[in-house]
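Deliverable D5.2: sample structural annotation.
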Amino acid sequence: MIRNNLDTVISGTGVAIITPFLPGGKIDFRSLDLLIEDLIVNKVDFIVALGTTSEAATLTTKEKEELITFIKKSVDGRVPIVLGAGGNNTRSVVETIKSTDFDGIKAILSVAPYYNKPNQQGLFEHFSEIARACPVDIILYNVPGRTSSHIDAQTILDLASEHWNIVAVKEASGNLFQAMDIIRKRPDGFSVLSGDDALTYPLMALGADGVISVVANAYPAAFSAMVRLIHKEKYDEALAIHYSLLDFINLLFADGNPAGVKAALSIMGMCRNVLRLPLVKVNRNVYKGLKEFIEKYEFPG
């Protein structure tokens, strides 16, 4: 099997971008444009659109189309775009892929099927169908805490070996043994990306290639600097940034994602603190903790 050019390996800091909303619930495109500009200026490596952090589950088909059109225009080719395209209905995911305009899209991020709880053979067949239909690279997304569906290390390796366009996994199981197993056995050109901000440093120290981050919405310069330092094997400098953000990371997820990061971004003046039900704002204690951290934070880089 011939993989894509290894120079195009997906690595570095990807950001699972939020969807800002206006008080009435409509998409706030002005804030989205400002956020994208901030991410690019602060040297993130790629942007993930319509991921979990975007509240994609609450967006209509029309809104998703409007968002991706806007994000493409705002990014203007300056960094790669990864598009969230997954679900628990294989046929529906395939049909969506076939109807998508992939101009300007580097890859898709495809989450493990949720609710159905397929076994490993079902997961293999699900992603194989997606791979046969998809004209761009595919990042598998293993996040059992959200899906109750765990893609085993061997299934990920089998998919990577079977399909040229399955080029990476966003590993958010929290299982370091699984991550190490994938890293040491993966084929050439296959990336392992942290799906957990708090575990990015240790995973990259073990050989992972980068992260798809929530924290980098708020602190793109610091988080992307940490990732670049690890790539350069400047571990002590990277570790200082890791620990400087650790309390913030814990607060960010204490009352759910993206509620935490939207609260933080609102404190920073980047967007309004508006979510769509069933998500609601973080509680007072978490908001207070985020505000205190943001007011005091000093980037050690």
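Annotation notes: The chain has one domain: 11-234. The radius of gyration is 18 Å.
The annotation will be released with the project's public dataset once the embargo ends.
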